[in-house]
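> call design_seq(struct)
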């Protein structure tokens, strides 16, 4: 069914004090709650719910507010729900009228809600933060015409891939499935295989590579035995059992056949979309995840778009898609785009592309300053990873990569708006002059 409504009943609770009267109206979260147009989200997400089917969904402002807080303060689903119970400003931000003493929902409700709204719904959430940024004067509309685009790697929640760990993971999955479907294996190697993996790791640490390769060869042989044993017994099983083993056996065969020089290798058993992306950093030569294109305003570093790209494409081939997303979300077509040397050889219609170290065409002081400000996107990406959640993605699949990148951009915008309100609001804020008593249930409105 449609989400529940959070509208006030109009009746005053004599035994509770409304949060609007309890909290400091100059607090940045209090102000931000009144700047965000929650009705836009409510109307946009209405199409994802049916009218008269199932239980009523959670209020849109509650669940969307939890996601904003999650990515603004870098919390997990469990942590943001638990901290919501302790923080009255978080409760007011999510639309509560009185202080609540019970958690609003189970943390898994955030997962189900993300699956329901998908990438399109997350883009709506990012666009609302852009509107709030304009309303709070954190960013100006004319800034949308000059943007900076860069790419980074959104790392997936996997361990560093090695052949030994992948072989052992394949064996564990096959043995577990065999037990679930009552298939008796000739031998499952539950003791021998972990021992071989442990010895391979020890030999690798001691730089004894011949002994390490010997252990890995034995481990690969054991995995192949279990694989062939299951294949032989599946011929007499039903189609349902064969279907249950299909994906696991395909991944196992792919891992057993892949060679070090192969390009499209499988780096994780549970996250097949992970790519190995070389970044050339001294401390981290390779990153395992998905490429993400970040679009920010050149002047104020406000995020206008964040889009993931599977398959590790060339940076220049992602530029037009990034600019298209920024135009859709901000409502303004960029006229200038500042990029690094990874975008060489690409042109976008009606957009002037300025590349790092470019000399030709940079004939004004404004362009020289703007080209220097292109470097400012690097610390923005650092904040997205360290202050936000872009540094590690726990969401599943390519859809999870896309949603997570967009929500991380929304969280960065929320942090910038909160900083703007925290620094500049106390200098010009004045309490509104009220002749008549304000109803306790009415929201606080910032005076013009």
């Amino acid at each position: 069914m449609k989400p529940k409504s959070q509208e006030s009943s109009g009746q005053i609770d004599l035994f509770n004090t409304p949060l609007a009267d309890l909290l400091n109206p100059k607090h940045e979260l209090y102000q931000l709650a009144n700047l965000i147009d929650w009705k836009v989200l409510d109307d946009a997400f209405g199409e994802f719910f049916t009218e008269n089917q199932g239980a009523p969904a959670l209020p849109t402002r509650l669940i969307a507010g939890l996601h904003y807080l999650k990515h603004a303060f870098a919390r997990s689903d469990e942590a943001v729900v638990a901290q919501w119970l302790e923080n009255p400003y978080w409760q007011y931000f999510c639309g509560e009228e009185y202080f609540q003493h019970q958690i609003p929902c189970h943390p898994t409700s955030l997962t189900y809600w993300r699956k329901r709204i998908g990438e399109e719904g997350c883009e709506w959430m990012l666009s609302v933060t852009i509107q709030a940024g304009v309303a709070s004067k954190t960013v100006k509309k004319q800034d949308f015409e000059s943007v900076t685009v860069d790419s980074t790697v959104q790392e997936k929640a996997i361990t560093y891939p090695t052949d030994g760990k992948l072989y052992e993971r394949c064996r564990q999955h096959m043995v577990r499935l065999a037990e679930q479907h009552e298939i008796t294996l000739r031998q499952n190697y539950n003791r021998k295989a972990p021992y071989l993996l442990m010895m391979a790791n020890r030999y690798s640490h001691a730089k004894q590579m011949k002994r390490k390769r010997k252990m890995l060869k034995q481990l690969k042989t054991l995995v192949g035995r279990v694989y062939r044993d299951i294949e032989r017994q599946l011929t007499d099983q039903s189609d349902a059992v064969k279907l249950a083993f299909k994906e696991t056996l395909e991944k196992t065969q792919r891992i057993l056949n892949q060679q070090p020089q192969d390009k499209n290798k499988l780096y994780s058993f549970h996250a097949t979309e992970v790519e190995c992306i070389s970044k050339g950093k001294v401390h981290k030569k390779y990153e395992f995840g998905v490429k993400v294109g970040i679009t920010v305003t050149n002047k104020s570093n406000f995020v206008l778009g964040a889009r993931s790209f599977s398959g590790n494409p060339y940076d220049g081939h992602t530029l037009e898609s990034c600019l298209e997303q920024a135009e859709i979300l901000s409502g303004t077509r960029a006229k200038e785009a500042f990029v690094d040397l990874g975008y060489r050889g690409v042109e976008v219609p009606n957009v002037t592309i300025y590349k790092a170290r470019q000399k030709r065409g940079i004939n004004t002081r404004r362009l020289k300053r703007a080209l220097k400000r292109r470097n400012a996107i690097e610390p923005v990406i650092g904040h997205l990873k360290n202050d936000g959640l872009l540094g590690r993605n726990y969401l599943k699949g390519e859809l999870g990569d896309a949603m997570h990148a967009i929500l991380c951009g929304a969280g960065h915008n929320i942090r910038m708006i909160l900083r703007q309100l925290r620094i500049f609001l106390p200098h010009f804020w004045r309490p509104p002059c009220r002749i008549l008593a304000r109803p306790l249930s009415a929201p606080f409105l910032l005076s013009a």
